[in-house]
Write a structure and sequence with these properties.
alpha/beta, Rossmann fold, 4-stranded parallel beta sheet, 11 helices, binds the ligand C=CC1=C(C)c2cc3[nH]c(cc4nc(cc5[nH]c(cc1n2)c(C)c5CCC(=O)O)C(CCC(=O)O)=C4C)c(C)c3C=C, binds fe (ii) ion, heme biosynthesis, Ferrochelatase_N, Ferrochelatase
């Protein structure tokens, strides 16, 4: 089925000053978390302020949370996080790795989908926090003639703090459109066979390059407060299922792979076990060679390049660990682009085939 051209302008009845309408097309809008424009104090403060004010991320009453955030956290954390960003920054391009990788993914997905659908589709990306904003990209797609938009949060596992808040920003952007495009959001793909396959291939490739086979693979997922799980967020279960499917695809048993959660923030209990503690425990228990991968992240970012590959590595080595291998995220690897493009194609059904 071909996408139908825009038929809203009827030449016989249109007034002479009727606005011009571009040919109708389908927009595919990829969304990631967002990243600071720079690692200086004010860029960091702006980014963290927007992120940590999102009640899908931190759900405390703003009356209690905002004074603490504005007066305490945002006076210190922009410095420490800014230094961490500086250590991983893509200085050649003047942007964070998350931004560079998201652009590369967008370019490759565009190429794949254009080869299949031609100019009936346009592909772009937006961020939940910072730039380019979701609102600006929805506006640009509507202006370019998109009367349908498929919105794709690039998180394999659903969490209120990631997928839902990305969707919220998308719906808020639609609220401002006079002629609102028909819209769909892409569901989580934590169990999609091609995502599992891409993960498995990346592990097999990494293991083939390591002379001394690791004792165990640690699948480290970004954490959330445990309370969110108790309140109905399926993130924890989806992470566990991704690890199980990966284990089955690799043909491994439970001694060769484990699930942990990283990036704890604040005093509440988060999902356990905490990666930083678990890698130390593994070293102390005699697992001196480990590999760590991060299946919840579609692109390498501060949480993987700095937290896993620097802080968590250090925790392992201080506890007596000897060989630590970080396995990069799927980023713009071919198998990942194939998986993401397949998820998109499945969700375009009925709009264009
Ligand atoms: C404070 C609460 C946080 C929750 C809950 C949270 C959930 C969550 N986040 C990601 C993915 C990413 N988080 C990233 C950075 C980051 N995350 C938090 C806090 C929470 N995340 C902070 C404060 C930061 C900023 C860095 C820092 O100051 O520590 C990123 C990286 C962005 C980048 O530019 O590189 C990603 C990606 C997931 C998947 C998730 C829950 C499922
Ligand atoms: Fe985070
Ligand atoms: Fe669970």
């Amino acid at each position: 089925m071909q996408h139908q051209p825009n038929s809203a302008k009827c030449p016989a009845h249109a007034p002479s000053d009727h606005p011009a309408l571009p040919p109708a097309r389908i927009g595919i809008l990829l969304a990631n978390l967002g990243t600071p424009d720079h690692y200086d104090y004010w860029s960091m403060r702006r980014y963290l302020g927007e992120f940590l004010s999102d009640r899908r991320v931190i759900d405390y009453s703003p009356w209690l949370w905002q004074p603490l955030l504005q007066l305490v956290i945002l006076t210190k954390r922009p410095f420490t996080s800014g230094a961490a960003y500086k250590s991983i920054w893509n200085h050649d391009k003047g942007e964070s790795p998350l931004m560079t990788i998201t652009k590369d993914q967008t370019a490759k997905i565009t190429e794949t989908l254009k080869a299949r659908y031609g100019d009936d589709v346009m592909v772009d990306f937006c961020m939940r926090y910072g730039n380019p904003s979701t609102k600006s990209k929805v506006r640009a797609m509507v202006e370019a003639g998109c009367d349908k938009i498929l919105f794709f949060p690039l998180y394999p596992q659903y969490a209120g703090a990631t997928s839902a808040t990305a969707n919220d920003a998308f719906f808020a952007a639609l609220m401002e459109e006079k002629w609102q495009p028909t819209s769909r959001t892409v569901p989580p793909y934590f169990d999609h066979p091609l995502y599992i396959e891409a993960l498995a291939q990346s592990i097999e490739r990494a293991y083939a390059d390591i002379a001394d086979r690791p004792d165990i693979l640690v699948c480290s997922y970004h954490g959330v407060p445990k309370r969110y799980l108790m309140e109905g967020d399926p993130y924890h279960c989806q992470c566990q299922k991704t690890t199980r499917l990966l284990k089955e695809r690799l043909g491994w048993d439970d001694t060769q792979i484990t699930t942990t959660f990283q990036s704890r923030f604040g005093p509440e209990e988060w999902l356990q076990p905490y990666t930083v503690e678990e890698v130390a425990r593994l070293a102390e228990a005699g697992k001196k060679k480990i590999a760590v991968c991060a299946p919840a992240f579609s692109a390498d970012c501060i949480e993987t390049l700095e937290e896993i590959n620097e802080e968590i590595r250090e925790s392992f080595e201080e506890a007596g660990g000897e060989q630590f291998t970080y396995i990069p995220c799927l980023n713009d690897e071919d198998a990942h682009i194939t998986a993401l493009s397949a998820v998109i194609e499945e969700n375009l059904k009925g709009w264009i085939d």
